[in-house]
């Protein structure tokens, strides 16, 4: 789809063609709109585009489970993996408060219930887009002085000048790309190119040509010769984000470059050389990926000569307040609004929150508070409305459910449950436990259903069948 270059690009994802067409019509006068009806179609569009959309307006209820929010939650994670700077506004009929909080925790900037007033929606989109991304405005990406951040600063300075690869690990939204940029700025290569490629944001069939380049006529559509990222990075830094998404058949070629700096463009026999410093990042457990045959062990060991773990926001103590103050100052200045104020009680509540979405979630909270409470005091109830309560065990220390290994504890719970209830139902109890474990895995995987299946030790088909069975039984249960 060809769009005017002067218009800001928006992506609409909704499986109802009437809604998608209506949104496209009234937003199309101001924005360049592209639409998709499924999560897979939306991801395909993101991979095809050279530039990411500025904003994605998405529904939660998408095929194959349009009556559940799972695909929409997974799409939020997909969009942020492919285009981290894209703002996400959820427009959904599945608008209960828990869904809204979960969507915001995953990285959505705003949540709007259907049906929405067109003028309000247009005004909201303008406001969300008015807040610029601030990640490049932080000197080293690190705000605060907690022990985990001091350790991270020391590692960045220690590893910066080395030519060897660095693997950056951390949860989604924790700031892995900022750490990679800091490594480059602190190094002797700071004046050299620093290129970044998101391995999840490109079709697997195009990864090789993108990394290594191609000759004219090497494949259909190759109308001319083209250099790849390794060639363009030269003797600078090449950052490969989401390295766990690299296709298995391409991993030996990456390993060769890491070992001797040699590679070939597709369609050429000439050997070229690169002396770029390689930095990679992932939110996956690559050791587990190696054990399960999805990632080469030799490549993992080569990439992890140095390893940096980015601490989650919940481990940074008072630094989350410093970060909020940082974002508050920036966004109130951008919007030309007086800053909001936190009460002592509100600050304490913020410090106790688990932040499943990490710094990205905190940034979006700052945006919403700036808009809603400009120049005002934010009370405890005001803040509670912005937090996702489904992940509170991270902050409050509530003990987790007993594992199968802890049989005595599980037996004690079962005895107490049976003895205290005259209407005990084994099937209903097992279903509640199953629902709880599925929801817990969805929180940990930020809605990525492939990762949910891996966490639960089942394949995706089995997982979807169990979710569908639980949904059907809830629907058919007597009131």
Question: What's the structural blueprint in terms of helices and strands?
Answer:
Layout lengths: L7 E6 L3 H12 L2 E6 L2 H10 L6 E4 L11 H13 L4 E6 L4 H10 L3 E4 L4 H13 L16 H14 L5 E4 L6 H10 L8 E5 L8 H6 L16 H5 L3 E5 L9 H10 L1 E2 L8 E2 L3 E6 L3 H6 L5 H7 L2 E4 L9 H17 L5 E2 L1 H9 L5 H15 L4 E2 L1 H5 L8 H4 L10 H14 L5 H19 L4 H8 L3 H17 L3
Parallel strand pairs: 1-2, 1-3, 3-4, 4-5, 6-11, 6-12, 7-8, 8-11, 13-14
Antiparallel strand pairs: 9-10
Helix pairs in contact: 2-3, 6-7, 10-12, 13-15, 19-20
Descriptors:
5-stranded parallel sheet; 21 helices; Helicase, Ruva Protein, domain 3; 479 residues; Rossmann fold; globular; 14 strands; alpha/beta
Would you give an account of this structure?
With 479 residues, the protein is an alpha/beta fold. The protein folds into 4 domains: 8-130, 3-Layer(aba) Sandwich (Rossmann fold), CATH 3.40.50.2300; 137-309, 3-Layer(aba) Sandwich (Rossmann fold), CATH 3.40.50; 315-396, Helicase, Ruva Protein, domain 3; 407-476, Arc Repressor Mutant, subunit A, CATH 1.10.10.60. The chain has 21 helices and 14 strands. It starts with 7 loop residues before the first strand and ends with a helix.
């Amino acid at each position: 789809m060809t769009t005017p270059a002067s218009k800001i690009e928006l992506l609409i994802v909704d499986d109802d063609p009437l809604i998608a067409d209506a949104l496209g019509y009234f937003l199309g006068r101001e924005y360049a709109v592209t639409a998709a009806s499924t999560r897979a179609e939306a991801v395909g569009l993101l991979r095809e585009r050279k530039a990411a959309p500025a904003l994605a307006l998405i529904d939660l209820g998408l095929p194959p489970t349009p009556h559940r929010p799972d695909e929409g939650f997974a799409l939020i994670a997909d969009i942020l993996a492919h285009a981290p700077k894209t703002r996400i506004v959820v427009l959904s009929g599945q608008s209960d408060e828990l869904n809204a909080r979960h969507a915001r925790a995953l990285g959505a900037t705003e949540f709007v219930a259907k049906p929405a007033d067109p003028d309000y929606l247009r005004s909201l989109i303008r406001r969300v887009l008015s807040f610029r991304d601030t990640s490049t405005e932080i000197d080293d990406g690190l705000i605060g002085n907690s022990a985990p951040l001091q350790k991270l600063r020391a590692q960045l300075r220690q590893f910066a000048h080395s030519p060897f690869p660095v693997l950056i690990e951390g949860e989604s939204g924790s700031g892995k790309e900022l750490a990679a940029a800091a490594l480059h700025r602190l190094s002797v290569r700071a004046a050299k190119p620093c290129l970044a490629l998101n391995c999840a944001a490109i079709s697997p069939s195009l990864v090789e040509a993108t990394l290594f380049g191609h000759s004219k006529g090497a494949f259909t559509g190759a109308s001319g010769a083209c250099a790849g990222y390794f060639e363009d990075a030269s003797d600078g830094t090449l950052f490969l984000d989401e390295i766990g998404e690299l296709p298995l058949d391409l991993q030996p070629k990456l390993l060769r470059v890491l070992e001797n700096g040699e590679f070939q463009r597709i369609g050429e026999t000439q050997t070229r050389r690169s002396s770029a410093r390689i930095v990679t990042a992932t939110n996956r457990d690559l050791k587990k990926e190696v054990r399960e045959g999805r990632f080469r062990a030799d490549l993992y060991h080569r990439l992890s000569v140095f390893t940096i773990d980015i601490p989650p926001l919940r481990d940074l103590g008072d630094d989350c307040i410093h970060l909020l103050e940082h974002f508050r100052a920036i966004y109130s200045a951008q919007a030309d609004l007086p800053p909001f104020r936190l009460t002592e009680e509100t600050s304490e509540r913020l410090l106790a929150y688990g932040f499943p979405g990490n710094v990205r979630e905190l940034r979006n909270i700052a945006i919403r508070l700036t808009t809603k409470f400009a120049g005002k005091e934010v009370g405890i109830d005001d803040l509670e409305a912005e937090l996702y309560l489904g992940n509170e065990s991270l902050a409050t220390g509530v003990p987790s459910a007993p594992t199968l290994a802890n049989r005595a504890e599980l037996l004690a719970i079962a005895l107490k449950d049976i003895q205290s209830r005259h209407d005990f139902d084994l099937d209903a109890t097992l279903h509640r436990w199953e629902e709880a474990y599925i929801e817990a895995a969805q929180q940990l995987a930020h809605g990525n259903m492939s990762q949910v299946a891996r966490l639960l030790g089942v394949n995706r088909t089995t997982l979807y069948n169990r979710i569908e069975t639980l949904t059907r039984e809830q629907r058919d249960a007597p009131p």
